[in-house]
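Final report, results section. Input specification for complex C-07:
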Amino acid sequence: MDFATLIQILDSAVRLMTPLLLACLAGLYSERAGVFDIGLEGKMLMAAFASASVAYATGSAWLGLLAGIAGAAAMAGLHGVASIGFRGNQLISGVAINFLASGLTVLLGQKIFGLGGRTPSLSGAARFGEITLPFADSLRPVPVIGPIYAELVSGHTVLVYVAFAMVPLTWWVLYRTRFGLRLRAVGENPASVDTAGVSVVRLRFAAVMICGVLCGIAGAYLATGISAGFVKEMTAGRGFIALAALIFAKWRPWGALGATFLFGLLEAVANRFPNLDLGFVTVPSMFMNALPYILTVVILAGFVGRAIPPRAGGEPYVKER
Amino acid sequence: MERMPKWADVILTPLISLVLAFAISALVILAIGESPAEALKVMVQGALGSSYGWGFTLYYTTNFVFTGLAVMVAYHAGLFNIGGEGQAAMGGLGVALVVLALPWPHWALALPAAAMGAALFGALWALVPAWLQARRGSHIVITTIMFNFIAAAALNYMLVNVLRPVGSMDPASARFPEAAHLPKLSEMALGLGVEWGRNTPANVTFFLAIAACLLVWLLIWRTRLGYEIRAFGKSEPAALYAGISPVRITVLAMLVSGALAGLMAVNNVMGEAERLVLNAVEGAGFIGIAVALMGRNHPLGVLLAALLFGFLYQGGGELALWTSIPRELIVVIQALVILFTGALDNMVRMPLERLFAALRRKGA
Amino acid sequence: MTATPAPAIELRGISKAFGPVQANRDIDLVVPRGTIHGIIGENGAGKSTLMSILYGFYRPDAGEILVGGKPVAIADSQAAIRAGIGMVFQHFKLVQNFTVLENVVLGAEDGRLLRPSLSRARGELKRLAAEYGLQVDPDALVEELSVGHQQRVEILKALYRRADILILDEPTGVLTPAEADHLFRILRGLKDEGKTIILITHKLREIMEITDNVSVMRRGEMVASVRTAETGPAELAELMVGRKVLLRVDKPPARPGAPVLEVRGLRMVDAEGVERLRGIDLEIRAGEILGIAGVAGNGQTQLLEILGGFPEAGARLQGEIRLGGRPLPLQGPGADGRARRRAGIGHVPEDRQAEGLIMDFTAWENIAFGYHHAPEFQRGPLMDNAAIRADAMGKIQRFDIRPPNPDLAAKSFSGGNQQKIVVAREVERNPELLLIGQPTRGVDIGAIEFIHKRIVALRDAGRAVLLVSVELDEIMALSDRILVMFDGHIMGERLPAEATTGDLGCLMAGVEPARADAGGGAG
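Structure output:
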């Protein structure tokens, strides 16, 4: 494998990891606050549809992004009402949201565009274009650093940079602000927050809504960044890979960066080499595709570096007698 | 004190949830500019109005009975098995391997062997998450989700690299031999001299599904294992007091659950497709969740809920055919049913409980 | 300086009911400023409810709360904090993977950013540590601290919020004696600085050791408030338990036979590393009721669970148990509840709702619970539900379980009838040894008498009974011999004929009666 191929694979990994990273961080806010979310997939899908539709109608990718955020936030609100307000089962609520998005996107898409669930192709300002960073072209001839900067670092849509910026931002919010302290506390021991006179319901709702916003950006990136429009079921399980990455990351922001990069890289390699010949054995692409899930199960089983979820995760908070 | 009479709990709450789900679905249909009444008419006519419609409805029902029972059995042990999709997919692999391994002389011999293969593969696919939950405390919901995807990849590999006949470009197994084809309900009816449901996929597995309902009912409410599963699901401290092992019950309940999900493959792989194809399960594993919730975790309820979803699936297909409503409408209905009977259960239940409390005060 | 200063806390006529249960009835309480005030009472006497009202977890149905002489409405915890009330809960409300500093600051931050809050808190903690002897490493993770240190963090949390009144709910339940001594030194220091402390406990020794005044609660009512110096453990024990209508159980003298149960050197350390049993030795003979008296939480529960075959997860056990001369395994697959039943041990557990019954199961299903392997309940591969129902009908008649409907869920029966279901199931098996914990907790008078008769009848049939109860009257009325448990070991043995409540009360408080008399005389 030569250097150029390596750069190409890494570049592709960066593109593929972006929606995973955003969704993973989305899940991180929700789950660190003690609300399990297996509905990342549905929220992303809804956002992808909403953003593509509005971007097509208005010709503006930015308005599309806003619509995507609104779509995912609506789903997040539903999850909040069911699992925080009515103390329903968070897992079942997540399952319902996935199906709701899966059905509604096609139903509405067919109604509006009549293309069997897809939106028309987006072009021009309706898509997020690739940004060329300063000096990218002039630095290109420089050996090693040039291609890395011009190909790998430069030339992505703005949402990719947003996603990467979200990592330190999330870290800062979580560990350096009052809100982050309370958010982490409510996911570990809601009684500690409650006895301190802070509302558990309000905190958890805030976390769930942030989760919706980030899923919205992830969905918008899928439909208006990496692709040129919405296609039925276009999230294709990315919400679940993001969930796996979240476990892999042990619910930590920098871990999320590492885990989603690893999973993005696996996908990029599988795309590039459908049958990876390692000399002594040929690794089929299916194995590469399944590897994120297999690794997550191994981590969950605690054989290598046990992943301990937030202690109060999944449980509706009921005041103790 | 009982908060509500039993009939209200068993019949009224799911009924109200269902009405809510359908009311919102009607609004969705209105929103896309179609008539809900018209849609319902098309669905009823298409799914129940002819023996042809019934032949498809019962085929889907059979799938959903198996996956619904799978979710139900795990639920009684206090476990949420969201891995029916993967277990059913692996069940399909079991069926294909068994049927293609031997030159079966007659379907009556192939059926029990294939059923065993399906159940075994489904059960084994549930075993690892079960064991990890019981011994290592790994959350079974997450592990079963992961196993769904691992199953999809494994099946993909098997179909492309192992089971694909030489020269075929299709990622699918060879066709099953003629002798191993299961009799369709239409053929059986014809044998009795009745013209019924020509060219429909409903087959003898439907009776297997009915038998499974009966057997699961016996298991849960008439055997010692079922007694222990229910006791463990209701109260772990009490189970320990009674000498019931949590590890044993978790593993056994998941084995039964996985086996039931796997058995679905007898219907769709052996009975309908007559070969193993990619994504043969088509989401039936997830519909099992809706079916079990709707059916209040009782085999009779599961059967009725499976029939309802069978009707929705066939009716939804007809909708897509005759109107401009896509068949994804049923996915929306399915989502709403899960939402109202599962996640928003308290929303329906709390006002009802208040109502009955008020009625009681008045009566007293 | 003529008027006496207003009391720190004054409660007037506080009442609180949960459904039909009256948890607090017309409670009056005055806690003078700068004192340590003990509130003592048995489990379920209403102490915790009262304190939860004070901390804003519940609104009282009636009554008035005055803090520093001014009436206040405490709608939530925030209001309680503002009124200067701090609470140290029995189960700590700490975030395990946070540092001490983060836990202290949580909910009382100065602004949106953490850093200024944390640095101010660091200085404040240093000051508090120096002032009250509350040394804790501010950067240590709570999960790495000992239980005693975690409790200090809870106290620090309250002080950081400028609490003047500190409520501690059963603070020594989880502490070693050395840690408890340290806690008391801290509390005295706080008192000397003018803080007011309310100590909720059921341990008489602590009351005598540290409080200035003590109030006794029983069944939701405040039955006495006295100066600690003017009372003694025996009097308090009597007040706590109450001079109830003397329970009389007609029973012929015991005719003890061969030993049925022998326990030697039984030790247990729980998953948190706390030693719950510190070397128990006991013997029960056939035809004998051995009563174990003691305040709840002194190891009785652990003893019953080990004998019944379900010690809590993660516990480490040591010692020897013999039943009819045969050794029984302490832990492992051969030591579960089923194996114990097969060996001939029946068990009416202390907590019938969580353990003894499946509340959603019907009465007849519960009649088979634990005995669902019994051959008479099987028919081929299935359970013989008809046989179980017939068995249940018989038991419902013989035990007068009401309503006599076997299809009703266990949760639909009253406490007394629920207990009758469990007792009927365990007693009618005619076990070699019956373990019975709190047989009449939450049970009405009629059912109490009935259950007591059945226990005596079992004894007269030549069976051994191990009775654990916090009700002293019950122990004295039923037992042929009495052991008193305190802090995981046997404090002493008495015969009911020669025992007095005062004598037993001292043992229950961990005090040898002779020394208590001397101490009482001096005080």
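Chain C has a mean pLDDT of 88. The first strand of chain C starts at residue 9 and ends at 18. This concludes the modelling results for the funded period.
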